[in-house]
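Anyone able to model this chain together with phenylalanine?
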Amino acid sequence: MKHTHPHPRATLGGKLSAVLVAAGSSVGLGNIWRFPYVAGDNGGGAFLVIYILCVLLLGLPLMLAEFTVGRASHRNAVGAFRALDPKWGLLGYIGVLSAFLILGFYLVVSGWTAEYMVHSLTGDLAHYSTAAEYEQIFTNFITNPWRPLLYTVIFALATHFIIALGVQKGIERSAKVLMPLLFVVLILLSIHSLLMPGSGEGLRFFFQPDFSKVTPSTLLVAMGQAFFSLSIGIGTMITYASYFKPETNLRHTALNVTILDTLVAVLAGVVIFPAVFSVGIEPSSGPSLVFITLPSIFNGMPLSMVWSTIFFLLLVVAALTSTISLHEVITVYLHEEWHMSRRAAAWATTLSTIVLGAAASLSMGVWSGWSICGMNLFDSLDFVTANIMLPVGALLTCLFVGWRLDREVLHAQMTNNGTLPFRIYRVFILLLRYFCPAVLLLVFLDNLGVF
Ligand code: PHE
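re: yes, here you go
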């Protein structure tokens, strides 16, 4: 191995593993919990169209840019930018900070999914039937002072122990088996949802664009959701790509991950929206949307307990492969830059995110009176990371890779040192240098009310 880095680094297995771990990070609560609720909040169909454009025109080039930075440097997010240009280390810090803040609320939602899995298994969820009842038990649960807290801590510890097993074993193994299963279950659930009475209205809401509902904030939210869902603008893909092998085809990996991630989000929409309209829930119910809708869907199925246990179990695993990637960004940063042992770095990450996660969890209930710009801590962490920090991280990353990074390095990474063809290389460069920064800036300025 010819690593110049003082810390010995693992590499991931073959081509499949690169796709699987990156998809493991991307596919998570962002697709199944966050996507339906922000699409529901932002008018449905038109949001979907804008979202898909953001994924293709911004997300994909940016994922390639992050892969380049990671594999060219073989370092953590901060060290990677610094190794390529000492002045750009700061950009990596935005990523590490975003990972920490995202974990703060992501662990809480992950905890909710774990609680729902347990309630499905014990049959508790099957005792109710109307959407109003499901809403009530959801509210009771998240406002309870200790139960969601307990699940947040359990989730943080589960993430910790998988991380502690090491990159290769922990991450690769879990992603390989369970991702495809999640896909199959989602397809079955979407068929069931489509057969529910009144499902047509939900389909129209989700697939029929009404562009009159689009505002500057719709664009920002769609962009933020695309970055959040693809795990971009935060150093996750840099960190993972630093473990990729030299022969991994970065373009195929990015394309596969993007397609998979988008398919899961669209499928989640096809599961959720027909059911939302069928049982009479408001599509703009916010973060509680899927937690009220899903039990209503299972309720109408034969063997509801089995389905809902399997589904929430898979959701727990999808969340886990994402929390692992967020945790890894911070752990490997502390390990390589602060020279902590990996063990100590992982514990420091786990304990600090438990503190933030606990505060975010309590902010839904006993601490809800305490607000930042009118939002509780949980909502502000969600809002600030997805709508501000990830787009800023993404903007600076495309400026760095498009304008600052040595062109030779970029070309070598995209073509594996000239051994792979890249027919649309010029289009890619144009997107990265001009299109992405311009769109990101315009959307920001628009939202600040400049126009
Ligand atoms: N992409 C993950 C999801 O959709 C969340 C995530 C965001 C993970 C940013 C890593 C970095 O659930």
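The domain at 15-447 is CATH 1.10.4160 (Hydantoin permease).
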